[in-house]
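Researcher: Hi, I'm a grad student and pretty new to this. My advisor asked me to get structures for two proteins we've been looking at. I'm not sure of the right format, so I'll just paste the first sequence and hope you can take it from there.
Model: That works fine. Here's the first sequence with its structure tokens right after it:
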Amino acid sequence: MSCCSDIDGTVYKLKPLLHDDSKQLFYKRVFGSEHGCHPELKETSEKILKKCGGVPLAIITIASLLANKPRNISEWNSVHNIIGSGLEKGFSMENMRQILSISYNDLPSILKPCLLYLSVFPEDYSIPTDQLVRRWIAEGFVHGQHDTVSLLQLGFSYFFELINRSMIQPEHLTDYESCRVHDMVLDLIKSLSTEENFVTTFDGYQHADLPEKVRRLSLQNNEEGHNLTDATLNLSHLRSVIVFPGATNLMPPLSNLPVLRVLDVEHCRDLENHHIAGVEKLFHLRYLGLRDTNVTELPKEVGNLHCLHTLDLSHTSITELPSTAIRLKQLVRLYIEDSVKLPKGIGKLKLLQVLSSIGVSSSPDIVGELGYLTELRVLHISLISGTGTWCKSYEKPLLDSMFKLQKIQELHIQSFGVPTDFIADLGWFPQHLKDFLGGGISRLPSWMNSSLSNLYQINMSLYILRQEDLQNLGLIPILRYLYLSIVEIESTEERLVIGTGSSQFQCLYHLSFDSCRAMGLMFVQGALPNLVSLDITLRARETKDLYGDFNIGLENLCSVRKVSVKIRCTSCRRCEVDSAEADIRKAIVNNPNNPMFDITRCYEYELDEEQHHDNLEAIEEEEQLQVINQLVLYSNCEPLTI
């Protein structure tokens, strides 16, 4: 990477900055602005800036370090004295490395292995955040309670702390779904990792300077077709193997890895069954990640893996779990596809906390056994999957099981094609619920109300939305993200009003509203006081026919900073879509917060072009008539009319 970015997303090239730009970057990162700097720190700040020599990465790194330290002169002088003087005399890789080393040495001890672990990834690799956190947990770097969700939350807090210290950079600032490591930072990490024999990278080219004993092995980029037998490596102490796409044929025989704890071959689509031969003999294995590979079945003896905590089989061709899987008594996280048939007795996995995703029609026995998995925190379930069918007899045992899941924090239910009144009327109280996704539900569940004090994210597709539903949703105290896809709005005469009252949607940060027909919402003055991002989708023809206009109150959202509008053009006249876009654009422009906005026309190729051509012909006929009338006036004849 030839550039770096601040935590707010501002991108800087490696070319040295002018002094004023250096000051602005430094003070913005530490204090928010130059005016926020305490007078006694001004002189030391200038000395530190001078030593950074205008190099953006050095400035951001040191500023991030100081932002996490007490703002007193002794601390700042200490940092100044540690920094070498080379950068002020000209750019030097060695001095840049020294500055990065200062930031590394200042890290809390719990974050150092998390940062060093990044050396397993290739240069310029886009690192998915969830994958990174899951691997930290598998390696034992995240120390906390045994509660999986708590470990995930703790792992993500480690991630954001490294972002805050500018040791890693978010790839997309709006979602933090992935990150990258600056090549200079990665160079330091790899050097430290080599010194501590933390990670060994093998890519088919390196044969010298490999350690005799390998602890963690990262296999990458085997373009030359080499294998590990060409290198004299002692793998008897190997604890982790991470394989990247293109390096599958570098994998050592699993029978040679007696103490292996982590095997992760995620996204290696050329990985087949023979590559994992002998996996059932890895008695110390805690993490087996086969996600997005071409594996079609697990060995029948997989139940021998008595230490296994995580089994990830999502996006594979596996259709059934072996019956011995019910012997995995230490299993905490199981990721599968909802089409996978589960063995009878899955309820014996008493420690299971994550189950994603299961299909009732694929594994009917799960409706009764689910109630035994009382430690579940994350449950993703599909009522119909593959070619399966739904039986009404599943309803009662499923409801009985759901009542027993009192620790659920993340619940996703896909129910398309299934009568869902029994879900909407489910008389339970998931008091720990934080994240809910519901697909194909008839109406808002009656249990979704202000009593859900931990619920911060809802993603639902509902057949019908009522005014009372908006009121109930608005009273959920810490709701921050709301995604609604609606088929029908109950009222056909007036729009539903959103955000009225002092307690309505006080914490909502993002709202996504997809109206399959007419746009039936109205944002009144003062609605959604903390809304930052809004996405709406509407049909132009239905909205115009039902409500007469496109006035939905976008100008009333006082805090919104980004608005995205999608207009569906199917069966519309072009003039109708033009009118819709003009009205929406005008409302956004009139918003006093001056938000960024994007208006997109969807399915524009489905415009009613026949009517469009009729309009064009009428316009052309009118223009021709005007010309004729001009000629008539010159000839003193009576003007023509249509």
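Researcher: Oh nice, that was easy. Here's the second one.
Model: And its structure:
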Amino acid sequence: FSPLKALSKWSALTQCPNQCRVVPDSSIHNRRGNDTMTAEQHLQWVSDHLNQGLVWLKNQCVNDGRLSNARLDEHQQATYDLALSTSEIRCAQAYLETARSTSDLNETMAETFAASMIQSTLNRLLLSPQDVGLTRAALAAPNALEAFLDANLRAEHLAKIGADLITVNGETQGRGLPEAQQMIADTFHQFADDVVAPLAESIHREDQIIPDAILEGLKQLGCFGLSVPEQYGGLLPDDREDTLGMIVVTEELSRVSLGGAGSLITRPEILSRALIEGGTPAQKADWLPGIAAGETLCAVAITEPDYGSDVASSKLKATLTEDGWLLDGAKTWSTFAGKANVLLTLARTNPDPTLGHKGLSLFLVEKPSTDDHAFTVNQPGGGALSGTSISTVGYRGMHSYQLFFDQYLVPHSHVIGESQGLGRGFYFTMRGFTGGRIQTAARACGLMQGAFEHALRYVQDRKVFGKAIGHYQLSQVKLAKMAMAIEAGRQFTYQVGRMMDEGLGQMDASLVKLITCKSAEWVTRDAMQLHGGMGYAEETAVSRYWLDARVLSIFEGTEETLALKVVGRALIEQAA
């Protein structure tokens, strides 16, 4: 496989191999032009009502011109509902933007997905409209919208989409990627199929650490340098971002194994972003080349036993000494901490509890790499760091650890930003997590795609009651809904990735993670269900996809925390 740098050089000379597939007219629906309103207008109608709800909530929760956390907590369900509904509507809008003027099947799917998200949002709001300051009368759909929903959500229509997807083997269009990113996607697609897929089942079933065959292959492809600027030996251009390239790599690796490959570049992404944001010139020069080469493997030690998504309340203690800082306390859910050479660790350098997040700093904690499920590192001066892996139902290969620091000495030079970085660790962490969240959306899309591909093959081969499963209406409806969720989530993720490359989209990264991770749970569940009894067997990949999908709404910010404290709060603040 050619390194990504070579791919970027070839992109100007090589034609993108994955063009949009033209679907025969006989296998698709005709585009509907008899509605008095477009799908975009219907989505805007719902969006306007969501904004009314957000404005109402803002009025309830403002105290002395500022949003009150206590008052927001009194409206948690409403905030959650509006955040989730907004993610659904914006996802549908992003899908429509890219689907127009592509294949007829893809445009039909985008309009149908829009109808589905509108219905989902209305169902949610109508449960208790007074919670968001609305009424049932205000949420009554206009005649044109009712007609749009009726036309798109009937079983016959959905089943036809599913049948058409079987006809074209799930290929509705190209991804709409720039040529260079499409070539990157194709390269990692091949690597995932040839190298990762044959190892994925044994990694999961035997709870193995990620094999060197995968790590070495990804090093050769430059995978660990996707977020490291070229001046430090990485693949990221010095003068611009390339979030989209990182997204497609993550998506392709996750398509075959989330735990065995799809999450490998998240930790170097978070650490690199934190270093770029707050590190000194010397720290960047010392650390980033090793990260880019894959020689310095990274883990993140942020979460604590008593404080999960509430990062600002972290209490791991860092005590200043002449030789450096002594770390004391516990961290948990530190993924890849055994294999890693360095732990990005958040600790409290100022013991004053009233400072909150302003008393936190980020440390680069070095340790030996190990494949073991438990380890202890003893320092000559008496300090120790121990770790024990946590048994999990899925997401195996990376191994998440509980860590305990006992007077573990970290040099002054290993505080990100050194003296200028003290008290700024929370901000550096959040900068890294933004990339982690858009990566998690990409992981969800890849996981859904892998599950869908397995299901699509199975329903064409497996016969019950005299014909293939895929010939039955219910199977076709399931396939249609799965494919729409995947393509919509993918295009929303790409859209936010492009925004982030322009310095925007920080909140949107949380918004897209919210919907794609929820979608991944039911898409993988339906892929498993279409397999029947075989779906419950460990030998079938869809059982692994289903187990792995469950973690997506938990890590990199839990679904509830993102909806309430990040997305919901930002939407309410912006409402007008």
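Researcher: Is there anything I should tell my advisor about the second?
Model: You could mention this: The two ends are 51 Å apart (CA to CA).
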